Amino acid sequence: MYARVLTAGLYGLSGEPTWVETDVENGLPGFFMVGLADQAIREAKERIRSAVLNGGHKFPDKRITVNLTPANKRKEGSHFDLPIAMGLLLASEAVLCRGDLSSTAFLGELTLDGRVLGTGGVLPMVIGLQKSGVRRVVLPKENAAEAGLVKGMEILPVETLSEAAEFIEGGLSEASFIAEGYRPPEDAEPILDFADIRGQQTVKRAAQVAAAGGHGLLMIGPPGTGKSMVGKRIPGILPDLTYEEQLEVTQIYSVAGQLDPQRPFLTQRPFRAPHHNLSAAALAGGGTNPKPGEISLSHCGVLFLDELPEFAPAALECLRQPLEDGQITIARAVGRCTYPARFMLVAAMNPCRCGYYGDPVKVCTCNESERKKYIGKVSGPLLDRIDMHVAVERVAYREIRSGLRPGAEKGDPPISSAMLREGVVRAVEMQKFRYRGLAIRNNASLTPQQTERYCPLDSACSRVMEAAFSRYSLSARAYHRILRTARTIADLEESEAIREKHVLEALGYRMPERYFE
């Protein structure tokens, strides 16, 4: 007998309908699987055999052939267990179908005792199935909340293989529900506040500019000056994710298997702060079957790299292409996957190994060779791709003790995240209006041609840029990045035109010269 069951294959962030064809016929007993299946799918034979028997069904003592179509695309993932088992039960007539299954898909991993376990990548697969006209999906109860994000899809959560078989025979209809989309939880996760940082007004201003335009930010200075504190508080001043961005980010985390079942839809911008011992594959993504790395997991959020020179050079160089293109392509023998990677890079580093080069209080113990070797761990091409470079100076005792910023009076509130975010939101709204109809999310995403169009300079600004270009030996890339930063500074002041003061401030956000002499 022959049976055909619908499921989905996952290719990067795209879910595509995949058919599981099962043929059970007389002959020497055997279980054969074709259709470019990976190791996890090939091992499903033993899981399915035990799950069928422990679920109270008879396993056919015949020749079993399973084909996964389209046969020219590689299939991967344990979620093929359930559709293969359902095809086997139908083809062997252990279960009789009492309805049309052509618009019903099955997803789920099986245990030896017949339970159906959750699996990764459910959200993009269900989205892909819905786009293909599928109306119903049978999947693990663990993934029901995640699949419920796809509005209009009928979801049937099951816990065992027997429940899935009962559905095919016409039962369990009352257990299904129509997805209504996401309902955000009432309790929001607490965020860190810039008001906790004493002093560092220049750095706070730089953080606001970076957040408003999506610019990369590098902070360099002695230990204990607040670099890490600033980096961890930047997500709190970023604008809210749009629904489209929320969906993109959630799909990435679903594919990576990092969704929280209690919060299946990510509504806050990601903040990733990996340790400096991570490998290039962990940062960029990879594996035999490529999965998203920290770069893609930071999409629409912040990737914070503390102690930047301590990262492996091979890992750091992985950042170069995503910073330019907003996506990363991972190529392996089994195929290529492209993941979105529009993230805000925030990095912090000391000026030398001991950390005190240029400090007015503590003497640096590094010699010239050691200092240049340490700074040289971060390549020039990578530095050139980071829009803003800010010196973080030692904080004065008065600011630490009183919490007052220079020029402030007693009783004045410290600069908080709410105050900074207010300006960021206004600037972001200006950018949305300016770039309406274009595939541009912020000023940092402008191409060189778009930069020339949207960042025009008057004669005074041009003279400033010409002098800076000559004095600092700026590259063409740095030139355009300075213009985009100036555009963001003008937006923060709600100015349609870029003024000379905006260009001067943007020039000030390049690498502190004394650290690289």
Give an overview in words.
- The protein is an alpha/beta fold.
- It folds into two domains: 2-178, Ribosomal Protein S5, domain 2; 194-424, Rossmann fold (3-Layer(aba) Sandwich).
- It is built from 21 helices and 19 strands.
- The protein has helices spanning 39-42, 44-54, 81-91, 122-131, 144-147, 161-168, 201-213, 227-233, 243-256, 280-284, 294-297, 313-317, 320-325, 368-375, 380-384, 397-402, 417-434, 448-454, 459-471, 476-492, 500-508, and strands at residues 2-11, 14-25, 30-34, 63-69, 104-106, 109-110, 116-117, 136-140, 154-158, 177-178, 217-220, 271-272, 285-286, 291-292, 302-305, 327-332, 335-340, 344-349, 388-391.
- It has a five-stranded parallel β-sheet with strand order 12-15-18-11-19. A four-stranded mixed β-sheet has the order 1-2-4-3.
- A hairpin with a 2-residue loop joins strand 1 and strand 2.
- Helix 7 (201-213) crosses helix 20 (476-492), helix 18 (448-454) packs across helix 20 and helix 20 crosses helix 21 (500-508).
- The radius of gyration is 28 Å and the shape is elongated.
- The termini are far apart.
- The mean pLDDT is 89.
User: What's the total count of β strands?
Assistant: 19
* Low-pLDDT segments, ≥5 res: none
CA radius of gyration: 28 Å
Q: Mind describing the biggest β-sheet?
A: 5 strands, parallel
- What fold name goes in the CATH topology slot of the largest domain? Rossmann fold
Helix content: 25-40%
Query: How far is the first residue's CA from the last residue's CA?
Result: 78 Å
Which structural class is indicated by helix and strand composition? alpha/beta
CATH class of the largest domain reads Alpha Beta
Strand content: 15-25%
Domain count, please report it: 2
Name of the CATH architecture of the largest domain? 3-Layer(aba) Sandwich
Please state the overall shape, judged from the principal axes of the Cα atoms: elongated
The CATH homologous superfamily of the largest domain corresponds to P-loop containing nucleotide triphosphate hydrolases
**Spatial strand sequence of the major β-sheet:** 12-15-18-11-19
Number of helix segments? 21
Mean pLDDT, to the nearest integer, reads 89
